Structures are given as structure tokens and as C-alpha cells.
Amino acid sequence: MHPPLSLIFFFLTAGTSIGSFIFMYFIEFLLLFGKGQGLPKEVILKLGLLQLVLIGAGAIGASFHLGHKLRAWKAVRRFRTSWLSREAVFSGAYGFTLLIYLVLKYFEVNPFFEHFFGITTFILGVLSGFSTAMIYASNRFVLEWNTSITVIYYLLMYLMLGSTLMAYFSYLYKLPYLGTFIFLSFLFLSLGFGFRLAFNIRQFYLKRPTLNEALNLPHNRPIRVLDKGSTTDNYCTEEFYYKKGKETLSTVIPVAYLLTFVVPLFLTLYAWITGTANEWILGLNYLFVLVGSALERWAFFVEGNHVQNLFYGLYPEQGYKLRKGFMERKETRISLYG
Question: What is the pTM assigned to this prediction?
């Protein structure tokens, strides 16, 4: 699949915004039970403003992926059946309730309403991330994406972005949660690393469809592509297959692993074990996760192989190897009389 830069941008901005808000508000939520020390009002407002700007910028950036940008509002009309519509609704609602939460926090109007909108924003943020992940995981035509692993490690990457940013802010404002966020960074980086590995390992065991299965024909009469039916590239061959990306994927994936997981894990462990966490280490830690996540998202899209590529001779080789299955028991009969 061709990697849309606008959606990669949305992932980075929304992931940082929602991921950091989850941790920021959870600290505030614990105060309801007399746990923790909470966060200074100044830190909440600055972080909240950053989160608001990021989700707004992400929404604007994502609109560039649409063919008719002025019709973006119509996405909400398919809420009952479309994960894309749910993503749009939940992301917009998240930004709106976040704004209300920050206004209430600034004026300190009422603790009840403040926490009500805080909890609502928390839930909407999680639902937004889940809906975005389900857009890919529910796609049955791209087998690489069609798994629950996609959802789990997608949400884990939100938490990676959020925890590393919160560790940086904890050091910057001398908050008593630095050790906690360094530990959480290590935890979610490790889990994200594990699930991303599982995502790649799973691809080796995928049972890919064949042209026979696509045409509902038995395997005793093998079908193969002689001509892709088009002398020039078209939308299908360009958007559903990214040739340049496929050629560089073997290089990009290791670099993405290195920047997203390996280097941040090393920096986190170094800061944790030696106790020498500082602004540079924690700042670089977040930047490495950010840049690595951008490459990871790029690789994620390029790794996807839409089954329509079978008809253009662009599907992975495994898709042409006939395998045993119920289709072999189906007989092919040609008759002029039905």
C-alpha cells in the first residue's frame, strides 16, 4: 500500500496528544482517592495546550488524505458502520472536551465538572485510538493488517509516545513522577517491541489467497497472470502497490526498529540504572520514538498487500503457490446447456 504522509502525521500528533493526556489525567484522577500529589496547574495547562494544538494539527493534516476535503464533515454520517467515521467523531469530541477541561481547570470553577470532562476526554481519547487502529485491523483485504495484534501494538505506541514525553516534562518541571515515567517508558517500549515483532513474524505464516480462490475456481486448473491488463500505471497499481517502498522496505524496517525501540530502550535503561536522567537524555528519548514511529508507520503501510494486486501480478509470490484446501474438491464443468 502507498504510505499517506498525512495519516502518518496524524498518528504522531494524535498519539502524542492522547498518550500524554492519558498519563496526565490519570495522575489527577488518583487525587479523587487521596493518592499521589497531582500536577501543578501550570504543568496541566501547558501540557493540555500542547495536546490541544497537536490533535487540531493532526485533524487538519489528516484532511489532506481526503479527495474532497470540504465533504469531510460527512464522515460522521456513517458512525454505525464505519471505523473511519468513528475515528472522526471520537477525535473531534476528544479535542472539544479537552478544551472544556482546560477552561474549567484554568478558572477552577467546579471540581466535579472538571473531573467529569477529564474522564470523558480520557475515554474519548482511548476510543479515538482504538477506532483508528480498527480501520486497519478490520480490513480483510490486507491480510498483514487484519489481526488483533495491529490494534494492541498501535495503542501501545500511543502509550510509548505519551510516557516518554511525560518523563521529559517530569524532569523539566521537577515533578515527583520521573522514576515512574521512566519505568512506564521501559514497560511500554518493551511491550511495543514484542508486539511489533509478533506482527512481522505472523507475516511468514499467512495463508495468502490464490487467483483460483479469488475467481472461485478449483485448484486443479491453475490460473496465472499473463498480462496485467493495463499498459500504463493507474490508481490501483500506484495506491495499492508502492514499488519504491517495497524495494527499500528491507532497509527501513531495521532502521525503524532501531530508532523506535532499541535506542529508546537503551536510553531508558541507562537513565533508570545510572540515575543520571537529564533533559538531553529524556528529550532525545522522545525524539527517537517520534522519528522511529514515523518510519514504523511508513513501513506498516508499505508492508500491506491488497488482494486486488493478484490481478496485476503484484501480489507476494506465495499468492501464486497453490495449496491444498476444499477448493480442490470442487469440479469445473463447462457446458452450453448449464
Answer: 0.89
